[in-house]
Design a protein that fits this description.
Belongs to the tetrahydrofolate dehydrogenase/cyclohydrolase family. Homodimer. There is one protein chain. This protein has 309 residues and is an alpha/beta fold. The strands form three sheets. It has a five-stranded parallel sheet. It has a three-stranded parallel sheet with strand order 2-1-3, with helices on both faces. α1 packs parallel to α10 and α6 crosses α10. The N and C termini lie far apart (46 Å). The structure holds NADPH dihydro-nicotinamide-adenine-dinucleotide phosphate. The site of NADPH dihydro-nicotinamide-adenine-dinucleotide phosphate has 25 residues, from α10.
Length: 309
């Protein structure tokens, strides 16, 4: 229950970015290739523009080329899909990222589904999610290495796994509970933990007695979108708690009038957990690091001529 049981996502993400920078330099040296990420931004949402700026800056820092494409908010679905097709065919582009959300008149999944799975560095294409479930893809050794997957796994879920492992927890053989079953977070986290040989239970909105189920877990990953839902009496003493949630709650004492909290009651659960991630500063910083790593891996796979798709 002291500061030293907090998992520092900022520091771990920084370490990973350093590793990626070295690998990009080595790749350039050995084969003259610089990984390339294309980022498509539609409209003028300030939050989306901020995320895109952060991603492009992160690319620059590690030695990944970035290509930015801006479209007005009234762009047609056909024009967006045509841009994606062009990027699919461009050999300098190893990763394509369409910043979400898209304006209401555009069918988001339809656009995402046109990205080649090999260039889908967000890992949101249904084929990439399916690859994660397809155990034959990973061989019979049950060794599952995120850095050498032949396809792209979703970024935030990969970030959760890295936080667990790099803070010193072996996943194999553990009892894990994932709260939430979205395509973007809950389901891929469940699949990653299972591939890492944990025994995994998924809690969702129809689960009876979620607190009792959660209390069995050595590892808890919460991805619900409900402020501070997970209470101290849900947590087995010593468990590792990863909080994916980002919720804004009113706070008249803060300058902005609100503050961000996770899906976990941090102050309460910190006293019970073995290790726990804060919000912000836990899972958040990992997502961009995993995007960079997927782009680098995409460039490397392109060179070896092989891929899982
Ligand atoms: P979704 O809303 O898509 O999914 C939420 C899931 O939680 C659903 O599966 C839902 O169950 C389940 N759920 C809802 N209420 C309950 C309940 N009372 N008890 C148990 N389960 C419940 O959210 P996302 O997965 O997209 O995101 C989850 C959180 O993570 C959000 O706060 C989001 O902002 C954050 N996030 C953070 C990221 C980061 O980089 N740090 C990236 C992505 C998301 P059911 O399926 O039955 O409806």
């Amino acid at each position: 229950s002291s500061a030293d049981n907090i998992i520092d996502g900022k520091a771990i993400a920084e370490t990973i970015r350093g590793e990626i920078k070295e690998e990009c330099a080595a790749l350039l040296q050995s084969s003259g290739v610089t990984p390339g990420l294309a980022v498509v931004l539609v409209g003028n949402r300030t939050d989306s523009a901020t995320y895109v700026r952060m991603k492009i800056k992160a690319c620059e820092e590690v030695g990944i080329h970035s290509f930015k494409f801006d479209f007005p908010s009234d762009v047609t679905e056909a024009d967006l899909i045509a841009k994606v097709a062009e990027l699919n065919a461009d050999p300098a582009v190893h990763g394509i990222l369409v910043q979400l959300p898209l304006p209401g008149h555009i069918h988001e999944q339809k656009v995402l589904d046109t990205i080649l799975p090999d260039k889908d560095v967000d890992g949101l294409h249904p084929l990439n999610l399916a690859q994660l479930a397809h155990t034959n893809t990973h061989g019979s050794s049950r060794k599952f290495d995120l850095k050498t997957l032949p396809y792209h796994a979703a970024c935030t879920p990969q970030g959760c796994i890295e936080l667990i492992e790099r803070s010193g927890t072996v996943i194999e053989g553990k009892e894990a509970v994932v709260i939430g079953r979205s395509n973007i977070v809950g389901i891929p986290v469940f699949l990653l933990l299972m591939q890492k040989n944990a025994t995994v239970t998924v809690i969702h909105s129809r689960t009876k007695d979620a607190s009792a189920v959660c209390k069995r877990a050595d590892i808890v990953v919460a991805a619900v979108g409900r402020a501070e839902m997970v209470k101290p009496d849900w947590i087995k003493p010593g468990a590792v708690v990863i909080d994916v949630g980002i919720n804004s709650v009113d706070d008249p004492t803060s300058k902005k009038g609100y503050r961000l909290v996770g899906d976990v009651d941090f102050a309460g659960c910190k006293a019970v957990a073995g290790k726990i991630t804060p919000v912000p500063g836990g899972v958040g910083p990992m997502t961009i690091a995993m995007l960079l790593r997927n782009t680098l891996q995409g460039a490397k796979r392109g060179l070896s001529g092989g891929n899982g798709n």
